[in-house]
TrEMBL record:
Protein name: YgiT-type zinc finger domain-containing protein
Source organism of this protein record: Tumebacillus permanentifrigoris
Length: 139
């Protein structure tokens, strides 16, 4: 796994989605990484190249709808998704876990100790974001 697989201090989760390419091709069965905390998402890095090639060919052939699964095979899709186990945030239905908040609080102390004001402020912003997500959840 790479740094791209992490967000909000935890591993993102893998799931299949249908998305539009920049050229307007609707692509079904695209394995995406999604952060259950902030809902940021992107294509699983392993399959980014396959996705780009597929949409490139579809755009030049004027194909409007396609499926990444049909193009590269079920096996590759399942292998990519299998790298990302189910997330505790999904199982518990929580957007932010207590250990994420603990981790940020620890880092805030480190930043304070290092006198790194910029980092300190970034961490405070992250903490504020986490608490606003929790309020949305409890409403
Ligand atoms: Zn996130």
């Amino acid at each position: 796994m790479t740094q791209k697989d992490f967000c909000c201090g935890l591993t993102m989760i893998g799931l299949l989605r249908s998305i539009y390419s920049e050229g307007g091709v609707l692509v079904h069965d695209v394995p995406m990484l999604v952060c259950p905390t902030c809902h940021k998402s992107h294509i699983i890095p392993d399959l980014e190249f396959d996705y780009i090639m597929l949409t490139h060919y579809c755009e030049s052939d004027r194909v409007k709808v396609t499926s990444l699964r049909d193009a590269i095979g079920e096996r590759k899709i399942l292998d990519a998704l299998a790298k990302y186990p189910e997330d505790e945030r999904i199982r518990t239905g929580r957007r932010v876990l207590p250990q994420q908040i603990d981790a940020v609080l620890d880092l805030i102390n480190v930043a304070k100790g290092m006198d790194d004001e910029q980092w300190h402020n970034e961490l405070l912003d992250q903490l504020k974001k986490f608490s606003s997500y929790q309020q949305i959840k409890s409403r």
